[in-house]
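4.2 Preliminary Data

To establish feasibility before requesting continued support, the project team ran the inverse folding procedure on a target of 605 residues. The structure was first converted into the token representation described in Section 3, and no sequence information of any kind was made available to the design step. The complete token record follows.
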């Protein structure tokens, strides 16, 4: 069974040594209570909950799965009790507004909490995770009556939330949404349609479920310009704000899936359900992006978390498993064979997992500071501040979601590979981690969709390369600052070159795409992966600098920890970062190399 140990020392290294979260929180209008002692206490208690309560349910939840009984979904044994403990601990409202029952702490603390919970038990984490997206959407786009009615029970965890976007005929192309919203005399709407792939669509963890649904009003324009957003509760709230009569919402099916079997993925039927519009009519997709971006950052955790979980268990196995002798001579002569830790190829796999998990975590924590600034902009009603940080975070979001889930999935496969044949057997749980992680590259927009969003919309269309210039300027300035330090000079010099190359590639694609329109599509995946590897290189350089400073100043993490960081950073630059150049070469290949094969020549006979 996979076991999880929260990497608190690594988390504290990032918070205190690399990103100076103490100063960051002190600069925020909602960061006064996020003192170092308070943050460490919160993380310590979250670690205990994850290790003792959630981790033991990970494999048993997969084996039992969810089941549909009399039209209602039942979660696996232990999930309801774990959720009740989650609610009792106040975890759902950690970063929510105090006026609606939350603790008002910065959003980044909620993300760090979510990373721990998701690593310990990703299927469980999806239930409260979807609720957070619903809460953010209602908070930012709902009216005060809707906030009072729905945010308080959602924040308390008594109610849960979902996002109901896609339908059988449209997938990611939400312009094809057919669900109808008929206006009623009392200001409500009757929602009719079917939504598929709805995570947490139904379950027995909460007394009510609040569905956030995309639908069309009768005279709405075609395409994405005619979509509105609605709150559709499973049970209508009563006059006292409690659970009233059942709404016309039902589960059409419980999906049978490759993984995340303890997470209920449902087909949801809305048969004239009572709904209430959020935001302006025909502006639903804009409102839903609040939910989608929340979910996409959350999904990026599913790249980091499984890489960490797989690494922890593969490392423990490699230390105990003995096979053959090391090529450089016996290492454990008293044993029948040497530990496979002494085989260089096994170390390659373990170091790759370590580099991905720790580098990805750094990327998430870096972006989380952007999210903190953006949320503060909302709280301060500073539209300019919101727009600034929303743009910065918007550029990073597809990189985080697309890149981290791709390499996170690779890391889970490496963990199974370390186990050899035992990794393929379910009792060890390594194959479950692989199965559970596979969905991460698909939902909330596939990697291809993230890549198109990054290159086509965020880089070329919206900012004309400005997003890359802004981000690489930070990289370059950091690199120049450390070129005189011989210990990190090779990394700093490589980072400086990459900052220039990233800009050059962006400009080259921008100019070429004017004549070769399909290039944006054919180059987008390689552009995303290249961007991810360079972003992670920036993070590993920052971690290496912090580690050398820790050694020099006798830092709290201990010299062995810091030296391991430096060695892993060197491994990343030597063995993983070179992949970026392959992507750089591929993205410049003319699209005709992909498009010239006629459709009818794609055959199998």
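Position-by-position output of the design step:
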């Amino acid at each position: 069974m996979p076991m999880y140990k929260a990497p608190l020392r690594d988390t504290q290294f990032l918070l205190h040594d690399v990103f100076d979260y103490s100063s960051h929180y002190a600069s925020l209008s909602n960061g006064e209570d996020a003192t170092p002692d308070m943050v460490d206490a919160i993380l310590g208690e979250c670690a205990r909950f994850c290790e003792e309560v959630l981790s033991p349910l990970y494999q048993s939840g997969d084996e039992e799965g969810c089941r549909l009984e009399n039209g209602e979904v039942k979660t696996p044994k232990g999930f309801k009790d774990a959720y009740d403990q989650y609610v009792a601990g106040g975890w759902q409202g950690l970063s929510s507004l105090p006026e609606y029952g939350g603790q008002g702490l910065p959003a980044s603390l909620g993300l760090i909490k979510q990373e721990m919970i998701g690593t310990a038990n990703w299927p469980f984490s999806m239930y409260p995770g979807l609720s957070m997206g619903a809460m953010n959407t209602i908070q930012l786009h709902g009216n005060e009556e809707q906030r009072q009615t729905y945010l308080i029970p959602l924040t308390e965890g008594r109610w849960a939330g979902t996002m109901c976007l896609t339908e059988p005929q449209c997938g990611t192309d939400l312009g094809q949404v057919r669900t109808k919203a008929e206006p009623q005399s009392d200001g409500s709407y009757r929602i009719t349609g079917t939504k598929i792939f709805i995570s947490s669509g139904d379950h027995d963890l909460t007394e009510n479920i609040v569905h956030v649904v995309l639908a069309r009003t009768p005279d709405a324009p075609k395409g994405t310009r005619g979509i509105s957003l609605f709150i559709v509760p499973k049970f209508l709230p009563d006059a006292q704000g409690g659970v009233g009569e059942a709404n016309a919402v039902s589960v059409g099916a419980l999906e049978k899936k490759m993984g995340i079997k303890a997470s209920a993925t449902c087909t949801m039927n809305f048969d004239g359900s009572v709904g209430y519009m959020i935001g302006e009519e025909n502006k639903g997709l804009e409102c839903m992006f609040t939910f989608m971006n929340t979910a996409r950052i959350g999904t990026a955790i599913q790249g980091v978390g499984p890489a960490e979980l797989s690494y922890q268990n593969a490392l423990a196995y490699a230390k105990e498993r003995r096979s053959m002798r090391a090529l450089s001579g016996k290492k454990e002569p008293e044993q029948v064979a040497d530990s496979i830790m002494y085989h260089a190829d096994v170390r390659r796999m373990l170091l790759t997992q370590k580099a991905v998990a720790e580098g990805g975590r750094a990327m998430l924590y870096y972006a989380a500071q952007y999210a903190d600034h953006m949320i503060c902009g909302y709280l301060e009603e500073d539209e300019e501040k919101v727009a600034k940080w929303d743009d910065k975070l918007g550029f990073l979001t597809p990189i985080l979601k697309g890149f981290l889930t791709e390499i996170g999935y690779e890391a889970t496969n490496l963990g199974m590979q370390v186990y050899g044949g035992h990794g393929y057997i379910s009792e060890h749980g390594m194959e479950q981690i692989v199965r559970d992680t596979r969905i991460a590259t698909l939902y909330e927009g596939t990697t291809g969709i993230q890549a198109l969003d990054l290159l086509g919309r965020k880089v070329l269309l919206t900012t004309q390369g400005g997003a890359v210039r802004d981000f690489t300027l930070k990289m370059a300035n950091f690199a120049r600052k450390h070129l005189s330090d011989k210990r990190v000079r090779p990394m700093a010099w490589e980072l400086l070159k990459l900052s220039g190359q990233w800009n050059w590639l962006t400009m080259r694609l921008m100019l070429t795409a004017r004549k070769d329109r399909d290039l944006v599509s054919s180059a987008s995946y390689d552009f995303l992966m290249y961007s991810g590897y360079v972003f992670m290189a920036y993070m590993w350089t920052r971690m290496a600098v912090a580690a050398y400073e820790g050694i020099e100043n006798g830092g709290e993490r201990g010299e062995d920890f810091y030296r391991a960081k430096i060695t892993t950073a060197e491994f990343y630059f030597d063995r993983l970062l070179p992949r970026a150049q392959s992507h750089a070469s591929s993205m410049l290949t003319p699209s005709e190399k992909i498009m010239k094969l006629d459709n009818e020549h794609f055959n199998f006979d």
